[in-house]
Amino acid sequence: MLKKLLIGSFSLLSVHFNFAQETQKQLDHIIKEWAAPNEFPDHVILSATADPSHSIGVNWRTHASNTVGYIEIAVAGPGPDFRDDIETYQAMRTNVNSTLASRGGFESSFFEVQLDELKPNTLYAYRVGNDYFKSEWHQFSTSSDKSTPLSFLYVGDAQNYILELWSRVIRNAYKRAPDADFFIHAGDLINSAHDESEWNEWFAAGGFIHSEIPAIAVPGNHEYLGLNSDKPKYNRKLSVQWNAQFGFPKNGPPELHKTCYYVDYPNLRVIALNSNRKIELQAQWLKKVLKKNDKKWTVVTFHHPIFSASKDRNNIQQRKHWKPLFDKYNVDLALQGHDHSYARGAVFEKPVFLEKELQNKTVVGPVYVISVSGGKMYSVSESAWDKFGAKLEKIGERKQLFQHISIDGDHLIYQSFTATGEQFDRFELLKKNGKNLYID
Ligand SMILES: [Fe+2]
């Protein structure tokens, strides 16, 4: 009797197991079909270039058998007649095969056009594709070439539950600042470096926002995995899609192509660093880029934080080689990710007290921010700040956040918002005699 019961249970378990396996297979197949490239251009994204007043990078994807792509562009007009004055530019094609590196991989064509000689502060319309299949007309504005006010958005790790949960963050960010000049992604955009279905989630969540606000992105540790999906932790390489799908500047060290670079607005230099590789080499490059910098404001972005917000995390090399340069050359903001929580603080000059009230605080080096936008959350550990002389001003846990930063002359306003649109954090910086007065 017992034997009969056990055999019965085992068969039931095996039926369940087979059913689960079969269901998983079907699910994987459906997800793969959903993420597959096809005739129509998708993953259309704008990238900031070194000179966003006059140029922009445009990238997109199709299936691999499509070998030709081009962009059509015109100054946008109120009606359809802007199409009478179109210019066409051929795209560079890169064939990317992610089938070995990712179980759900594909062979895809990625196309890239770098548009130069654009007019500053001008609204353009563009579409991408070939003679048969084209995208809709997207619009973007080049930046002003004057020191006018600008603003930008910044998010930490999207990484997990990208379409499920990150979508509401990027969409709320766009609602808050539809005219933002650019959008910073501080690493770990996805979880498995070469997985095209995760990239497809990232593009589906952002939709036309990616095609209309230029991105500035750096890779996180999750953008590095082995090229053999059976040994993902062996010999990690940058996401095979990265260089093909982004058009970032090539003004960094050649071995860190499109992952370490800088972008110049009239009153702001944004420096993107790759915190995964060659930290010392980047320090030498960073020194030159900071030394020859005539911009009023300087923002750096990278993935692994200088002061960690998580227990047992300590990015010694970045702190040793980069922080002294941030301090020496008065970098204003360091926008980071990696710790899946929120922490914001700085090193301050000795506080000044007047009538027992703290009247002002002067910041030494940048205000450091760690933020998270996707669905994976860790607790905050505060210890990593005090022991290095930094003061934490604000922490947050289990909140999906985006940040909006505005710069106008000597004044910077930083705001952080939750996925539901409430303000979560805020401070201001005021430039006085080359130093930053901190106002909260
Ligand atoms: Fe990370």
Question: What is the compact description of this entry?
Answer:
This protein has 440 residues and is α+β, with helices and mostly antiparallel strands.
Give an overview in words.
With 440 residues, this protein is α+β, with helices and mostly antiparallel strands. The protein folds into two domains: 43-141, Sandwich (Immunoglobulin-like), CATH 2.60.40.380; 150-439, Metallo-dependent phosphatases (Purple Acid Phosphatase, chain A, domain 2, 4-Layer Sandwich). The protein is built from nine helices and 25 strands. The chain has a 15-stranded mixed beta sheet that branches. It has a four-stranded antiparallel beta sheet with strand order 1-2-6-5. A four-stranded antiparallel beta sheet has the order 4-3-7-8. A hairpin with a 2-residue loop joins β24 (423-432) and β25. The longest helix is centred in the first third of the chain and has 34 residues, at 2-35. The model is unreliable at 1-10 (pLDDT under 50). Residues 157, 188, 220-222, 303, 338 line the site of fe (ii) ion. The site of fe (ii) ion has 7 residues, from loops.
Keywords:
about 450 residues; alpha+beta; single chain; 15-stranded mixed sheet
Please write out the topology.
Layout: H1 2-35, E1 42-47, E2 56-63, E3 70-75, E4 87-90, E5 92-97, E6 107-115, E7 123-129, E8 138-141, E9 150-155, H2 162-176, E10 182-185, H3 196-206, H4 208-212, E11 215-217, E12 224-225, E13 237-238, H5 242-245, E14 261-265, E15 268-272, H6 279-291, E16 297-301, H7 316-321, H8 323-328, E17 333-336, E18 342-348, E19 352-354, E20 357-370, H9 383-386, E21 391-396, E22 401-408, E23 411-418, E24 423-432, E25 435-439
Parallel strand pairs: 9-10, 10-11, 15-16, 16-17, 17-20
Antiparallel strand pairs: 1-2, 2-6, 3-4, 3-7, 5-6, 7-8, 9-22, 12-13, 14-15, 18-20, 18-21, 19-20, 20-25, 22-23, 23-24, 24-25
Helix pairs in contact: 1-3, 2-3
The chain binds fe (ii) ion.
Fe (ii) ion is lined by residues 157, 188, 220-222, 303, 338.
